[in-house]
Design a protein that fits this description.
- This protein is of the alpha/beta class and 455 residues long.
- The protein has 16 helices and 14 strands.
- The chain is globular and about 60 Å long.
- Belongs to the class-III pyridoxal-phosphate-dependent aminotransferase family.
């Protein structure tokens, strides 16, 4: 059945009014907070028009806002809280570590243990710790540059790799600004990014290995061969876009043959797609990997892993990798507890079961109502993509993006106690504390939405 877009517009207006009416305490908090806190939030990604939703507390799969509205959390802190909120195992680790001291600016045993656990899961031998995903990708790129002696960086058009200058390029752009297929445009993601930096970052499209190699050869001929390609093995900020068969294998072969360091940015996929992230799930080994989000079990931490050869430039001090809070004892204690006691083989079996249930349920709704779209997922990540054709890269995403339905879907879920990523199109993240009933509630709300927009 075709979507009734007049009805969609009506529902957006009514659902916005309903959400505004139910979040008046958030409105009052916003009015107070924005006096000194810019826009009333700590990050632009926490914004929502006309005011942000302020969260008071959470436990397990549930969060409660300052208006005391209760939600099943499918947002999970931008994909960070796969352990669930206030997980008692994580709490015990914090309680045990705190009396021993929370910061020394020096190494502790847990940092060595966590490095070993990550080496075992990823099959990557050498690690350093940082404090966020942005720091992880920044350090990985610097190490790759130090190792190769080259400056140019390649990335996938549309992928977000943190808020440092090198990767604040060619992210959220309109379709008509993407540029030609063979030479996508290098475009700054907002102000404050030097044009010289933008010019050193070269985007290519996901799922297009042939053009990747052409661009490497062209750049080499221009005397600016890339130091590295940084990419997500599966794109996670266009909903979920999985690699086409053979694509990652081709990328690995091409980058190895041309001496370009391959960095898998697993800030979102690490520990969520599998115990060893996308590296394990897709069976392709990069030269370097970056982690954050889920790693800290709710505390800010990140990691950079690499081969013996690439990380040798850190070992011999060619590259200075430093950070006051890197390997923070509290964060390492929670990471260790998470890896050893929470994110177990049984936990991943549970997540796969939940993922199958929600994806299958959503696809049945799509098929039943004849909606243009599909459900897709892997591990703890998934989404419903509202598109008449399969999204394989940023151009197909922007060409077929259904903004009104996506906007309505977010409002619809929020008003039915299902918390999704605020104000943005982003996939769900499941946690080990979610249940079958939570998946069924999500699917039920989606079925009600489908009925409403095809009426």
């Amino acid at each position: 059945m075709p979507i009734n877009y007049d009805r969609v517009a009506e529902l957006i207006a009514s659902e916005e009014a309903r959400l505004d009416a139910s979040t008046q305490a958030s409105k009052a908090m916003y009015e107070k907070a924005r006096t000194h806190l810019v826009n009333g939030v700590a990050s632009a990604y926490q914004l929502r028009d006309p005011w942000p939703i302020y969260i008071d507390r959470g436990r397990g799969a549930t969060i409660i806002d300052v208006d005391q509205n209760e939600y099943i959390d499918f947002h999970n802190g931008y994909g960070s809280m796969i352990q669930g909120h206030a997980n008692p195992i994580i709490g015990e680790a914090v309680a045990a570590r705190y009396p021993l001291g929370t910061h020394f600016g020096m190494a502790t045993e847990d940092s060595a243990v966590v490095a070993g656990l990550l080496a075992e899961r990823w099959g990557i031998p050498r690690w350093r710790f940082v404090n966020s995903g942005s720091e992880a990708t920044m350090n990985a790129i610097r190490i790759a540059r130090g190792y190769t002696g080259r400056d140019t960086v390649m990335k996938i058009f549309g992928s977000y790799h943190g808020h440092h200058d090198t990767v604040m390029v060619s992210i959220g752009e309109d379709y008509d600004r993407i540029g030609p297929r063979e030479h996508p445009a290098s475009l700054a993601y907002g102000g404050g990014v030097p044009q010289a930096t933008v010019d050193m970052t070269i985007p290519v499209h996901f799922n297009d290995a042939e053009n990747l190699e052409r661009r490497i050869v062209e750049l080499d001929g221009e005397g600016r061969k890339p130091a590295c390609l940084i990419m997500e093995a599966a794109m996670m900020n266009l909903g979920v876009v999985l690699p086409e068969p053979g694509y990652l294998e081709a990328v690995r072969e091409i980058t190895a043959r041309h001496g370009v360091v391959l960095i898998f940015d697993e800030v979102k996929t690490g520990l969520t797609l599998a115990a060893g992230g996308a590296t394990e799930r897709f069976g392709v080994m990069p030269d370097m990997v970056t982690l954050a989000k889920t790693l800290g079990g709710g505390l800010p931490t990140g990691a950079v892993g690499g081969s013996e050869e690439v990380m040798s430039v850190v070992e011999d001090h060619t590259v200075n990798q430093v950070g006051t809070y890197s390997g923070n004892p509290l964060a390492m204690a929670t990471a260790r507890a998470s890896l050893e006691k929470v994110l177990t083989p049984e936990a991943y079996q549970h997540l796969e079961h939940l993922e199958d249930r929600i994806v299958t349920g959503c696809q049945e709704v799509i098929d039943s109502y004849g909606l243009p779209g599909y459900a897709i997922g892997a591990g703890a990540k998934g989404c419903v993509t509202f598109s008449p054709r399969k999204v394989i890269d940023y151009p197909t995403y922007k060409q077929y993006q259904d903004r009104p339905v996506t906007q309505l879907a977010w409002l619809w879920n929020m008003n039915r106690g299902i918390y999704m990523t605020p104000g943005r199109e982003e996939e769900w993240t499941l946690s080990v504390t979610h249940t079958d009933a939570d998946m069924d509630r999500y699917v039920s709300a989606f079925a009600e939405l489908a009925a409403a927009i095809t009426n």
